[in-house]
Amino acid sequence: MTEQPDPADEFTTHKALLFSIAYEILGSVADAEDVLQDSYLRWQSVNHTSVENARAYLAQIVTRQALGVLRSAVRRREEYVGPWLPEPLVTDAADDAPDGIDHVLTGEAVTTAMLLVLEALTPTQRAVFVLREVFGFDYAEIAAAVGKSEAAVRQLNQRARDSVRARRHTAVATPAEAWPVAERFLAAAATGDVQGLMDLLAPDVVFLADGGGVVNAVRRPVVGPDKVARLLLGLLDKGARMGELDVRIGAFNGMHSVVVIIDGELDQVTSFEISRGVVTAVYCVRNPEKLTSVKV
User: Residue 153 CB: number of other CB atoms within 10 A?
Assistant: First the structure.
């Protein structure tokens, strides 16, 4: 008789994938971790002898849990103060990640820009798109996860793909391609070189800040090289005047980022989206509720 794998070991084996699925659906590290905890409890109560494919079954549990959280979150986000940005997810080397966070996300899928595009989808469309286009589950597995027919899932995925394609025209540079631009950009910011910053900003560059109504942050998108350059330098100067400024370089959501610490307290994570040799977007997360997983 074949010995059954230990359920706890099975969960651990797929934990990084499960966290990644939950994060892609929710855009929240904290919520993804909560989903994993709830999913583990549900997995423990399953009759494991009837499970033929643990990976697909666990993905199904996590997807259903995440969808429940997302449907509630959608209503909250409609009342959110200022722009909503996903929680920063560290994409440095594994030993730079906070304890308990391990994931498999890389490339375009994990970027803030893509996660914001996914916000435009319905919860079910988002789950279907994530499972199919990001993680490569087959339609039968996805149908079981979202409680739809395979035909319906194919249609949902096509609509999601069309929506994503309409909103994402240019791929974000890889970290290796982006680094020379980020290096020059950070040097210009450090020296207060407005023109140097503007030369590295796309004509339609946008600055988005998420304070969530908890801390001060611009509540409308700031667009254009001149406005964004001057805003960035102004924020840097303001931070220096608030106390002892510590700026560290990192990588969050596949983008070069700076972690700003003032008087020993984490103030923000600001990430730079780079495409075709210029900065196309700046994402500044200041809401302290979204910075709890960032290790400083």
Answer: 26
Whether residue 100 has pLDDT greater than 70: no
3-state secondary structure of 138: coil
Given a contact cutoff of 8 angstroms between Cβ atoms, the answer to whether 212 and 85 are in contact is: no
| Residue 233: partners with Cβ closer than 8 Å, 6 or more residues away | 189, 192, 194, 197
Cβ atoms of 209 and 286 closer than 8 Å: yes
What whole-number percentage of the chain has pLDDT above 90?
A: 70
**CA-closest candidate to residue 108, choices 150, 54, 168, 44:** 168
Around Cβ 71, how many Cβ atoms within 10 Å? 12
Give the whole-angstrom CA distance, residue 165 versus residue 159. 10
CB 70 within 8 A of CB 126: yes
Q: Could you tell me which residues are beta bridge partners of residue 222?
A: 207
Instruction: Report the DSSP beta bridge partners of residue 265.
Output: 262
Distances (CA, A) of 257 to 254, 266, 274, 294: 9, 14, 11, 12
Convert the pLDDT of each residue in 28-52 to its tens digit.
Answer: 999 999 999 999 999 999 988 888 8
Closest CA to 42 of 58, 26, 21, 53: 58
C-beta of residue 118 within 8 angstroms of C-beta of residue 126? yes
